Amino acid sequence: MTEMLSVRRLKPVLLALSLLIIAYNLMPDIAPLDIHQEKAIAQGFHVVSEDDGHSDLSAKKQHAFIQRLRNNLESQPKINNMSAINITPIVDGLSKQILPTDEDLPQKAEGHSNTERKGNQTSRQTRLILLGYMRTGSSSTGAMIRRHRSVFYWYEPLHSLEYYFTTRGRLDNIPMKNRTAREEFTNSDMALGNISAILKCDIDRLYRNILLDGFLSFSKVTSQQIHCFKAADSAGSWNACTHAMSATCHRDYSVVAVKTIRFHMARALALVQSDPDVKIVHLVRDPRAVLLSRRKLGFCNWTDLANEASYLCSRMSRDLKLALAARDTLKGRYLLKRYEDTASSPVEAMDLLYSFVGLVSSAEDQAFARNLSKSSKQIKPCPTCKGAVYKAKEISQVWRKSIAHKDAQTISGLCQDVMELLGYRKDFASKKALKNLAVPAVQKPHRSVVQFMDIF
């Protein structure tokens, strides 16, 4: 009896130790920062070159882009309280900084053009940014694009950098709760510089943290390289790894794709403006579904739902307004995708995504897309997307059965502009109407964003 009591007392201790071990294993592999990187922290994440030199022609193009944004702000659609989200300071902020050019990061001894391809292929690489928010289907969309043999795919490459710079290496400061630091990082020159380098296959420009992060294992093409970097024991061997990865990226792939929830739309637009080969897929979802999904994972403080909803929808509204303000620049280079449309018509969504970057889906690709909406297994690699991937068609609306009517109304009241713009039903008259899935929650989006969508 005494032994049984002892075992029972030990169970909570053993459980706590198991959780600590799991948490430790999930921590990103943080590499020591070099002197330049430490200096970047002190200077507020700026990692541009010392002289900040740019050609007059580049400066003229950049200022012209900023002026077009300002002009377009005057013709923004007036949707309820949308005008309350003011992006003028963001546009003004862009005009005060130097937009990205090749001089923003150290140059390589031997550069690569964007037309280097194996064999006789000379087509330019397409550089794709999958830009979403946590629980908007970015992982499942990434799973669609990464399976094509012509795509060099990166899964959340800013993960370890964000973790370090929002916690300064402290384990007691969880990044998801440190919103000010996270926002600062997503809009930093450091995030911009590394995304730009990734899209150009300039691996030797990347911070070491990125190349040692376990998240590289979530993409087949990058997972093949991580062992090389972890085994590198000298500058020479490290450089050999970066050169091999860069050469493979340039030579063997027609599309370089980055999936990220850690990047600011203003920075993505700066890349579009400075690089004609960059395209953006902007992933959105009903805010009520997003917040409920986050809650189930422990990433949403439901006791402060109003603040959580305001934060999410202000970000979505800001990003949509920035895209609309840059609509003349974004023609043919920006695709707005609702999670619900992809879930209900996955094959059509895949075909649209592939066509957007110049790819053609195979019968196997289409079968994979169909399985996204009915598979009972987790689609790997994705550490948190089991609930977001399997039975996606049902899950896109099943949140309505789980959320309280008053909570749904709270979110709708704070997200009216975003929901009207994207075509989400704002009001359900009663709890019964909310739970009745025969009453559609997804409707036709506002005319101002239809030009960027393809509704199935």
Description:
This protein is α/β, with parallel strands linked by helices and 456 residues long. 54% of the residues lie in helices and 6% in strands. Strands 2-3-1-4-5 form a 5-stranded parallel beta sheet, with helices on both faces.
Features:
alpha/beta; 456 residues; 5 strands; 24 helices; five-stranded parallel β-sheet
Summarize the structure.
The N and C termini lie far apart (66 Å). By secondary structure, the protein is α/β, with parallel strands linked by helices.
- Order of strands in the sheet with most strands: 2-3-1-4-5
Q: How many helical elements?
A: 24
Mean pLDDT figure: 78
The chain-level structural class is alpha/beta
Describe the protein's topology:
Blueprint: H1 2-26, H2 35-42, H3 56-73, H4 88-95, E1 126-131, H5 138-146, E2 151-155, H6 159-167, H7 179-186, H8 189-199, H9 208-212, H10 220-231, H11 235-252, E3 255-260, H12 265-274, E4 278-284, H13 287-297, H14 305-325, H15 327-330, E5 334-338, H16 339-344, H17 346-356, H18 363-372, H19 386-389, H20 392-402, H21 405-414, H22 416-422, H23 431-435, H24 447-450
Helix pairs in contact: 3-4, 3-14, 6-7, 10-11, 13-20, 14-21, 17-18
Pfam families: Sulfotransfer_3
GO molecular function, one term: N-acetylglucosamine 6-O-sulfotransferase activity
InterPro entries: Gal/GlcNAc/GalNAc_ST (IPR051135), P-loop_NTPase (IPR027417)
